[in-house]
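Hi everyone, sorry if this is the wrong subforum. Our group has a chain we'd like a structural model of before ordering constructs, and none of us has done structure prediction before. Sequence below.
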Amino acid sequence: MRKLPLVVALTAVLLSSVAVAGTDKKDEKAAAAKSDAAVMVQPQTSTSEGSVTVEGKKIDYKAVAGTLVLHGSGDKEDEPQISMFYAAYFKKGVNASKRPITFIYNGGPGSATVWLHMGAFGPKRVVTADDTHTPAAPYQLVNNDYSLLDASDVVFIDAPGAGFSRLIANDADHGKRAEQMKERKKDVYGVDGDGHAFAQFITQFMSQYGRWNSPKYLFGESYGTTRSAVVANILENEDSVDLNGVILLSQILSFDTSVDGPEFNPGIDLPYELGLPTYAATAFYHHKLPQQPAALEPFLKEVEQCAMGDYAQALMQGSRLGAAQKQAVAEKLHQYTGLPVAYLLKANLRVSGGMFEHALQADTDTTTGRLDTRFSGPSMDPMGKSSDYDPQSSAISSAYVAAFNNYVRTELKFGQNQPYRLFADIDHWDFSHKAPGAHGEALQSSTNVMTDLAAAMKTNPNLKVYVNGGYYDLATPYFAADYEDHHLPIPASLDANISYSWYPSGHMVYAHEPSLKLLHDNVARFIDQTDNLGAH
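Answer:
Right subforum, don't worry. Here is the predicted structure as tokens:
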């Protein structure tokens, strides 16, 4: 056999080695994915103990960090589909079967529940600056004086694909497993699929921990309030689970009320009207009003009346609105928002949330926060039309993420070799929704779950709903929540089942410590009044 030149022989050997290495790496990756799937189909738990002092009262608790595996339905009921992570805290020394239990989750959609866990109701709380950027690590994790454990056991749940929750694709074939994952995302990443996953988690959790006879509550924030309406209806009308209460924080039930991008939905003026009181509160906070009112809340009552009165009537006229009347409305809006009259006229009296955030402090090239308009930061593009980022999110997110990643591994003893995903890897979220009572395949073009909450309230007339929000929240304005709940399709006799509390804070009400104390006290009182147990 003729010998190859040395350089050719070496090249052949190297190419062969690269090919083998590439194959080995591909095989290793496939084997690792298969191994991870095998681990996920088995529920995981890690138990620890601790104590928290809530407003002077010491509470000993057992903590369980773990996963529940959710299966499909019908011919797929034996097929594991989702591994959902939770962190549950159970008060020690009480009758667990009668102790209230609250299922808590953030929104996104597709967000982990690090925010409510580390900022609101867990036994530990991360300390952040009130309305400015929190300095970098090390961050301070302290006893949470306002943990909800004095009133209820609490279960923090990560949405599928977020946190330590994972979608499960366990086919042995790599290609089929990829198709299976694609199918999982399609089934779960949407209003209805997400709602059914959370409802299934809750019923499965109650079975595992013997909590079927406990007073039961849902607590959702932001998109979590959308989820709560869907889950409440599923639990009540598909699973025969009567809830004691649904607690909504920073509510959005109808996406037609959102101030995010209403300019792309012409003819729908409601967002501008419902956002006006938050614009006014923000201008009040930053001292941008032509005449500063003495107090916030009386001022907001005046703005609310204008929003639903003169302002709404002016917008309803569209191009029929006369120049003199348009000028008068712009001058009134200037008094309420601090925005220049010329700007308001050029905007045709319609200012979206992003436009307001960019324009309010434009004279100093400063962008106003979205989730909490008390926050400000340097504008990315001073010449832009809308804000390019949210100063509030940038100011505190790192503290929450770092604190939880350290806490869950060192104190809850979970997730040592797993990445904690702040958000699920969502390619597309299906916002279409089949409302209760809709026939055939009729789907909404814009998500609105007001009918779901109404159905749950009508089939369980004892169900109480508690709505909470911040005056400085432009992601889900408080007046939009008020409007939605006063337009629920329920009989007048059920109106009294809904109560409200508003706070001098933003979307994450609890990021402002005085508001966190009020939120805790109000929610604890709500649970005490609705748990049907008396002292516990």
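For your construct planning: Residues 1-21 have pLDDT under 50 and may be disordered. The chain is about 40% helix and 15% strand.
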